[in-house]
């Protein structure tokens, strides 16, 4: 059975909402197109899931928790490299809201709840603490996963790579994702291809569905 996974389409990652960590190219049109695609999947009977960053205010990735540090600096914590981000997707705030209709989703999987660890992947954080995502997908018989959302070079990439490692067949709908930078996005897409992930290109919904098994 095929499932759809929409990654982190949250207010703080969107330019159209002036999010604190907005990904380039996330204007109102982008959000509308993602919602249209997601509704089409729903109409066709796909089970749709979402991931949601859900950070405590003292999360390890927030530069504001390190006096004298600035956004996007790199530090080392217990042997792990850590990018320092502006505070984003804080639990219970508007910035953490998933902007498209939440009724489209069979389940929303929260990640990044543990203040100690970065968590790009929807399946686990960098402390190897698992989310419920793999369990929920398997309980619903999902073997093929269709992924799109934010951001290509971070959470989309990490989630897709973990999905392959867990045995899922993975399709990435490229033009319904957005990346933080062109260089890291291209590198991420190449890495995903090398892992056997099928990259679907184009924005025409009929062509997108034609490219799926």
Strand order of the largest sheet: 5-2-1-6-7-8
The portion of residues assigned to helices is 25-40%
Assembly annotation: single chain
The percent range for strand residues is 15-25%
Instruction: Indicate the radius of gyration in whole angstroms.
Output: 16 Å
- Cα-to-Cα separation, first versus last residue: 11 Å
Structural class: alpha/beta
CATH architecture: 3-Layer(aba) Sandwich
Question: Low-confidence spans: pLDDT under 50, at least 5 residues?
Answer: none
CATH fold annotation: Rossmann fold
Write out the CATH superfamily name: Isochorismatase-like
SSE order, as H and E?
EHEEEEHEHEHEH
CATH class bucket: Alpha Beta
Individual helix count: 5
The beta-strand count equals 8
Overall pLDDT: 97
Outline the biggest β-sheet. 6 strands, parallel
Shape: globular
Count of spatially separate domains: 1
What does this structure look like?
This protein has helices spanning 28-43, 133-139, 152-165, 182-194, 205-210; strands at 2-7, 47-53, 74-77, 80-83, 107-111, 144-149, 169-173, 198-200. The protein is an alpha/beta fold and 213 residues long. It has a single domain (2-55, 91-210), classed as Isochorismatase-like (Rossmann fold, 3-Layer(aba) Sandwich). The strands form 2 sheets. Strands 5-2-1-6-7-8 form a 6-stranded parallel β-sheet, with helices on both faces. Strand 1 (2-7), helix 1 (28-43) and strand 2 form a beta-alpha-beta unit. The model has no long low-confidence stretch (mean pLDDT 97).
């Amino acid at each position: 059975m095929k499932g759809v996974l929409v990654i982190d389409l949250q207010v703080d990652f969107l330019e159209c909402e002036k999010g604190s960590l907005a990904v380039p190219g996330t204007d109102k049109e982008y959000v509308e197109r993602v919602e249209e695609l997601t509704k089409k999947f729903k109409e066709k009977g796909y089970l749709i899931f979402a991931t949601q960053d859900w950070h405590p205010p003292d999360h390890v990735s927030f530069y504001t928790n390190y006096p004298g540090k600035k956004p996007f600096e790199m530090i080392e914590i217990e042997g792990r490299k850590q990018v320092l981000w502006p505070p984003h997707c804080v639990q219970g705030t508007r910035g953490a809201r998933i902007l498209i209709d939440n009724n489209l989703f069979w389940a929303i999987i929260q990640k990044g709840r543990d203040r100690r660890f970065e968590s790009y992947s929807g399946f686990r954080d960098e402390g190897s603490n698992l989310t419920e995502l793999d369990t929920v997908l398997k309980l619903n018989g999902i073997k093929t996963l269709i992924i799109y959302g934010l951001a290509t070079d971070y959470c989309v990439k990490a989630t897709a790579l973990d999905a392959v490692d867990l045995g899922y067949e993975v399709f990435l709908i490229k033009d319904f994702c957005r990346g933080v930078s062109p260089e890291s996005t291209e590198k991420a897409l190449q890495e995903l291809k090398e892992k056997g992930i099928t990259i679907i290109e184009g924005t025409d919904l009929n062509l997108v569905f034609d490219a799926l098994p």
